[in-house]
Amino acid sequence: MNAQEVRKLFPILHQEVNGKPLVYFDSAATSQKPVPVIEALEKYYREYNSNVHRGVHTLGTRATDAYEGAREKVRRFINAKSTQEVIFTRGTTTSINTVAASYGLSNLSEGDEIVITPMEHHSNIIPWQQVAKKTGATLKYIPLKEDGSIDLQDVENTVTEHTKIVSVMQVSNVLGTINPVKEIGAIAHKHGAIMVVDGAQSTPHLKVDVQDLDCDFFAFSSHKMCGPTGIGVLYGKKALLSKMEPVEFGGEMIDFVDLYDSTWKELPWKFEGGTPIIAGAIGLGAAIDFLSDIGLDNIHRHEEELAKYAIEQMSEMEGITIYGPKERAGIVTFNIDEVHPHDVATVLDAEGIAVRAGHHCAQPLMKWLNTSSTARASFYLYNTKDEIDSFVKGLVTTKEYFGHVF
Amino acid sequence: MSSNLDQLYRQVIMDHYKNPRNKGQLGEDTVTINMNNPTCGDRIQLHLKVEDGQIADAKFDGEGCSISLASASMMTQSVKNLSVEDAIKLAHIFYDMMLGKDYDDTSFDLGDIEALQGVSKFPARIKCATLAWKAMEKGVGNEEEN
Known about the structure:
The complex is a heterodimer of chains A (406) and B (146). Chain A is an alpha/beta fold and 406 residues long.
């Protein structure tokens, strides 16, 4: 993979920020969009914008074909058995909330357990807190090892015959940890629990195969994988989805509507109330084509190299704490001694370098790390080693800038 | 290094950050306000002693970036011995300053807080600077004012 060539397809990267060439190291928050994705959105709006599944007219058919075509692209991308198992949602958060509100509320009761980890994103914590509160189920946490990874023995010790749901992120948005969700899922299944995987940080960067993972639900967002914002996917095994009730009612998802009762469409549409996110789905389809052409394995390898290169240089600097295990995805979360991460991010921004600072929607993990916030550099297929050099220089500047204070 | 950055991190701000004034707790008969900035995790705990419509004393605890903590330190200094009414007026002068508007610099001795003027050039950091002032307003019962 040639990152320099890839960069040419991302118009936004070719600009100066605060008088310096933009270094965009915040792809874990949202990724940038390549020309084919921008063009797919534009083409839809310019040439065949129309509602789907309704019109008899030509544009309606084109829009429906493109929308359902995107679903087939998603199916292939994550290797689902059927497009009936691919539901378009607003994003990972909505996907997990759908599982919690539909499956969780109707299948759990007092005495049951939901098992998650302290490294989860708020979107994979709060929906389960709510299910626990409403059903009387208990929320339990798999403890983390000192380096922020998961020991399968700890999973064995936490999951019991009372456990109904296990939900774990595949890649940590803070530590970059790649979690063994397949093995965790096997333990969950052994105890009769279902396995939910938060794939928000994995799907953009590594090859996902939901049949190989054998997970029951898998959630991810388009905007972190070169696609537009506002759309994501909930994959679910058909056997489970077909027994579940919709969460949203109206429009699109109905079969027959009578005065006092109604029936739903078949899968996947029964979970897609209202006019769907048509442009978003088409844009996501274009992003999937784009990523597949380059190859997820190539992307993953490139990011690993970048993370390794960044960590090597940062480890040589004094007063920098790097969080997370050695083996990781393209995410480097760190703190500079005595300098608050907001201040780090502001000084780097003055150098044209965009990093995230804060709690990264993972307050329980921040507590576990014994810090209130951190700075995070996250890489994607369009980043280069030269950019890491600029970033490391920026860190030196930051240290010098605040050095005189302490 | 850009001059904007130097305007943001003025020496006097770094001094307040490093050596915060009025850090700690107050005794009995005080109002305590907890406020945080949910998007970034800054937290402040402000203690106010209000007597006969006057802020007799103010102290704070908290964690956050240089701007939020320096601003808290400066705020406690500025509002001490002001009437509640004046403290609220001063808060609004400060908000004007943060928004880069023309602000009233004659009614009060603005002292150190004027050093925070540079924050107005960094929209993402304005919330850091205003946190302590919002907490003060809440403490004197002026919550709805923003």
